[in-house]
Amino acid sequence: MLKSKPQRILLKLSGELLAGEAGHGIDDDVLSGLAEEVRDVHALGVQVGLVLGGGNIFRGLAGSARGMDRVAADHMGMLATVINSLSVQHALEKRGLYTRVMSAIEMHQVCEPWIRRRAVRHLEKGRIVVMAAGTGNPYFTTDTAAVLRAIEIGADVVLKGTKVDGVYSGDPKKQANATFFPRIRYMDILNQDLKVMDSTAISLCRDNRLPLIVFNVGVRGNLVRIVNGESVGTVVGE
Questions:
Q1: Who is most buried in 22, 84, 182, 187, counting CB within 10 A?
Q2: Could you read off the pLDDT of 17-32 as tens digits, one per residue?
Q3: CA-CA distances (angstroms) from residue 226 to 12, 43, 117?
């Protein structure tokens, strides 16, 4: 539960979420639902930034495991996030929301380059900003990119949308006795090696005292409930 209504949020979504039940590609129904959730939050006057993963199209770590050069594989993963970002931009603009895609890898014919001050200005003007291509560097996940961008734009909170209700002691889909944590400390996540975000992302949150909420984005209205101060998901803090 947030202490006060946030003015600016960073929403992190994995590529797998966009894939829906198919497990790959982009599911139009999922995309529409996410766009409507963002629209509802934006209507409350909240500034929204988004970071998307690319695992529904290509995952750099998986490519590396198959023998690809890790740097090249990670660059391919970054390009996958741009594809997802453009799809989300399309869905949002169909609903009347002005949206900008800003990429850490410059591609002027497709989207804007990532420039922090320009991103903040877009947010102040009420535009949704989708931040693509991770950090632009290999070996960093989109979780880390999301936290980094949240810090850069001065977001009040990072909201990580998942397929489960929050943070558990194990995978609740595989372990029936997994314990749900309504609140947990950054260090507990690191010490228990809980698969919430990678350790770099959690450490960045901790070092910058950036609140993190992990929640089920598949439940309609959860995003609005969090912004309105309701207790949804798991709050990660000191």
A1: 84
A2: 999 988 889 999 999 9
A3: 14, 14, 27
The position carrying tokens 């050069």 is: 69
CATH fourth-level superfamily of 8-237 = Acetylglutamate kinase-like (3.40.1160.10)
What local confidence, expressed as pLDDT, does residue 129 receive?
Answer: 98
**Residue 85 corresponds to which tokens in the numbers above?**
């970002």
Amino acid at 11: L
Distance from C-alpha of 114 to C-alpha of 124, rounded to nearest angstrom = 16
Report CA torsion sign: 29, 142, 230, 124.
negative
To which residue do tokens 């207790």 refer?
Answer: 231
Give 130's contacts (C-beta < 8 A, 6+ positions apart): 49, 50, 51, 52, 85, 88, 89, 99, 100, 101, 102
Please give the structure tokens belonging to residue 27. 């599911």
pTM, two decimal places: 0.94
